[in-house]
Amino acid sequence: MNSLTKASTLSAENINVWFGQRQVLSDVNLVFPANKVTALIGPSGCGKSTFIRTLNRMHELIPGAGLAGSVFLDGQDIYGDDFDAVSVRIKIGMVFQKPNPFPTMTIRDNILSGLRLSGRKAGNSDEIVETSLRRASIWNEVKDRLNDQAISLSGGQQQRLCIARSLAMDPQVLLMDEPCSALDPGSTRRIEETIQELSSNMTVVIVTHNMQQAQRVSDQTAFFLADDNTPGAVVEFGATEQIFNGPIDPRTNDYVNGHFG
Amino acid sequence: MSFAPRPAVQPWSRVNTARRVQIFLASSLPLAVTALIVLFGGLNPNVALLGVFLPLQLLAAGYVGFASFGRRGVGDASLIVLVLFFATFVLVLLASVVFSLISQGAQAVSWSFISQNNIYVSNTTSLEYGGVGHAIVGTLLIVGLTTIVTVPLGIAMAIYLTQSQSKTRGLVRTLTQAISGLPSVVAGLFILSMAMTLGWERSGLLGSMALLPLMLPTVARVAEEALRLVPVDLRYAALALGAPNYRAFFQVILPAAKSGLVTSILLGIARIIGETAPLLLTVPINNGTSWNPFSGNIMTLPAYIYGYLSSLFEPSQNRAWGAALVLMTVVAILFSAARFLSRSKSLKTKPTKQKASK
Asked: Residue A61: which domain range?
């Protein structure tokens, strides 16, 4: 299965976002190289989550949403004529802040739901279920109860199940929107380990409020900030090491050292 | 170290003896005083209940509340009294309806009453002969026909109202609510006049058509609520996995709303199964059994009840009560069956114990 995956480079160029008439992001330019983990940090309301949703065309589901700019997946514009929203989302998976397993399905069916929902035949479904659950480090906990309802799992397990559900689609890019914000330290640690293993097969973008987490899991970091009444923008973008230990912009320095936000 | 399980305790519900006495007096004295006034003063019991018992009980409870907690206790105690009083009032009201239906109807109901039709029965025929079999068949056929047409329409409306971003949703919702205020006799008259204009014969089908506008708003409104309760997160999760809208809807949203949708169908059926006026206008009655709702005479339970209730002979009155009991039982059976069939899987599987993870 691993050999099937080919990580892709994702790049966002001049992304501007509106909700109604209000602009919430201005001229975001970021490159997410293949097999790298990129962390998006910044205070609440600075547009990180909004931005990550533009990367797999989930943004356009919100009524009144607007967008200018381009997102390239291996050089092809995902908002261009060669792509539609469904085929983009098959290639670029997403894990949400709140665990959202399908409550009417079993653990097993949750893993296979992506394939069924996107209308593809599951080849060897047992193998896909096991591989995905193993990659999300939850196989040992659920292998004896694959036919239990997904909502019988704890919050941390549900979130790893959601990660496994995305992995079953074998995406080239995985977007994670604060995947650990509702989890205890043990579950968080396991998800972080998972993220690092995943980067050998895919490109990962993770939104996080946890500075230590960004330092632990990411190769590069982008710091978002929305000054009073202005749209959010990227203040600084670079190697994680540099952002945390030698930021150029004083605002980045203040934020990563906990002086505000 | 061994662990011996101890019984659970609830220290917050400990009550001392003095307060126990107060509570006992406060909950028995008002009733006793009211009873005495009714028995010896000759006051109408209904007047006494509202005019004597309720104020006295409020006073007594208010006093106990004040003695225990000061002013904030008065509010709590009064609320408890009011809630219990009116809840009991409504329960007694409902129970008495069911009780009178059962006590009056039970003498008519027997296997022959349920299975036979009324071909050789007159107003004075003994209860041993004849029954409501033909009316049960007719009601199920006509209501079933309405349900088959209305449920897809109503659920489609609910889907439109919840899943689309269309600007006309407000208008559709307002119109639906307006239809739900339509008097059933008007629905019957509308269909009747339509049939007369077109030269159609009265039949079970016309009855079904007259019931449709009565059932549709209920189904649409309850189904809309059911679909609205499905968290938008689930839809996003499905779409993020690359699902087209229709698959996200049929494989994720619809199953999650299943029990609510079944409720919408049940409430719709309950709304129309006892409707009388439209059926009297549009469906020609029949004393024999007819399995054909599309033409000819056919009997329904409401028409049967109406017909026999207006007769002054005792066997006929009993038949009407019996038919009412049968109608209520049919509704109860439909409800339990649907509830049983729609029990969601998540309720059947008990959450398994968490295993310690390494």
From this structure: 2-256
